Amino acid sequence: MALELRPNCEYCDVDLPPASTAARICSYECTFCADCVETKLHNVCPNCGGGFAPRPIRPANEWRPGACLAKRPPSTKRVRLSRDVAEVEAFVRHVRDVAPQDR
Ligand SMILES: [Zn+2]
Ligand SMILES: [Zn+2]
After folding, report:
1. What separation in Å is there between the alpha carbon of 27 and the centre of ligand 1?
2. Which residues pair with 23 in a beta bridge?
């Protein structure tokens, strides 16, 4: 298993290429940009209620056989949030003050 490395932010649709340091993922790999996570989602994934971590960068160099961006290319399938903004805002308000370990 490997991360899909999804190509965009589900919320604002900004590009998040594999080398981006602005990509954030939840444990299910819901993918958002750092700006949306901070200012809109308050570290609450709108799909699962979990928190986010920076997405690791897959090596461009093939340091080990088969383990590099060219051999395990990123996903090209753009994912967009299927919920409406008002519903997401209410959900985030409900979950954001729950400590990460208790979510
Ligand atoms: Zn975004
Ligand atoms: Zn999630």
Report:
1. 17
2. 33
Distance from the CA of 1 to the center of ligand 1, in angstroms? 26
What ligand has the least distance to the C-alpha of 20?
Answer: 1
Report the separation in Å between the CA atom of 80 and the middle of ligand 1, taken as the mean of its atom positions. 10
pLDDT (tens digit per residue) in 29-84:
999 999 999 999 999 999 999 999 999 999 999 999 999 999 999 999 999 999 99
Return the ligand number nearest the Cα of 11.
1
Residue 99 has pLDDT above 90, yes or no: no
Is the predicted pLDDT of residue 90 greater than 90, yes or no?
yes
